[in-house]
């Protein structure tokens, strides 16, 4: 797990992701997540662009340059957030399952401990890696409060959640755009052991 980054680190991730997106640098292959957040932010960015022109037309000329700079920063921040989510997908390899949020930290699980995955409909307050209230041994890792997949772990995995402690975890909830793709990635054969069920 990586602990929740500082605001400066988040801005840096957004900026670097946006530059690489603009330069058409190939993103890391993996499983996309947070589709609803991406779509919402893109709608807000388009709305902000339209409203920026409307508001600029009624502002005094002396104020327009300052307004334009502020609007540009807001628009770039929105695009940077979307780019960070697109460029930091969940990944599954032979040894690890990495659940990412793009800019709020991540959880890295040993693949050998991920026994199964199943659809789940959960809402867990907060963002990033966090404990699930009222469910001992469960954590969530997502940008959104809404979660749609549960990963069952055995044996339990001790995770470092920073200030929240180091719990032994048997269940991890996350969000992924295609739960079936995550299940397929986890079913793929791993040398030396049977693949997990779903």
Question: How does this structure look, described?
Answer:
The chain is α+β, with helices and mostly antiparallel strands and 198 residues long. It is built from 4 helices and 8 strands, in the order H-H-H-E-E-E-E-E-E-E-E-H. The strands form 2 sheets. The protein has a 5-stranded mixed beta sheet, covered by helices on one side. The chain has a 3-stranded antiparallel beta sheet with strand order 1-2-3, with helices on one face. Strand 2 and strand 3 form a beta hairpin. Helix 2 runs antiparallel to helix 3. The longest helix is centred in the first third of the chain and has 24 residues. The two termini are 24 Å apart. The mean pLDDT is 90.
Task: Indicate the topology.
Layout: H1 7-22, H2 35-58, H3 64-87, E1 91-92, E2 96-100, E3 106-110, E4 114-123, E5 128-131, E6 138-142, E7 146-158, E8 168-174, H4 179-187
Parallel strand pairs: 6-8
Antiparallel strand pairs: 1-2, 2-3, 4-7, 5-6, 7-8
Keywords, separated by commas or semicolons:
single chain; alpha+beta; 5-stranded mixed sheet; elongated; 8 strands; 198 residues; 37% helix; 3-stranded antiparallel sheet
């Amino acid at each position: 797990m990586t602990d929740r980054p500082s605001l400066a680190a988040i801005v840096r991730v957004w900026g670097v992701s946006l530059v690489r997106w603009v330069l058409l640098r190939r993103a890391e292959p993996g499983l996309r997540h947070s589709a609803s957040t991406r779509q919402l932010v893109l709608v807000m960015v388009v709305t902000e662009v339209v409203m920026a022109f409307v508001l600029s037309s009624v502002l005094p000329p002396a104020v327009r340059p300052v307004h334009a700079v502020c609007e540009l920063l807001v628009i770039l921040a929105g695009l940077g957030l979307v780019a960070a989510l697109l460029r930091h997908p969940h990944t599954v390899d032979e040894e690890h399952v990495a659940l990412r949020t793009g800019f709020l930290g991540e959880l890295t699980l040993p693949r050998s401990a991920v026994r199964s995955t199943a659809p789940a409909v959960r809402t867990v307050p907060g963002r990033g890696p966090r404990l699930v209230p009222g469910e001992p041994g469960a954590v969530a890792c997502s940008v959104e409060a809404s979660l749609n997949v549960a990963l069952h772990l055995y044996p339990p995995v001790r995770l470092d959640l920073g200030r929240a402690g180091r719990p032994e975890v048997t269940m991890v909830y996350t969000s992924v755009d295609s739960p079936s793709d995550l299940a397929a990635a986890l079913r793929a054969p791993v040398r030396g052991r049977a693949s997990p069920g779903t």
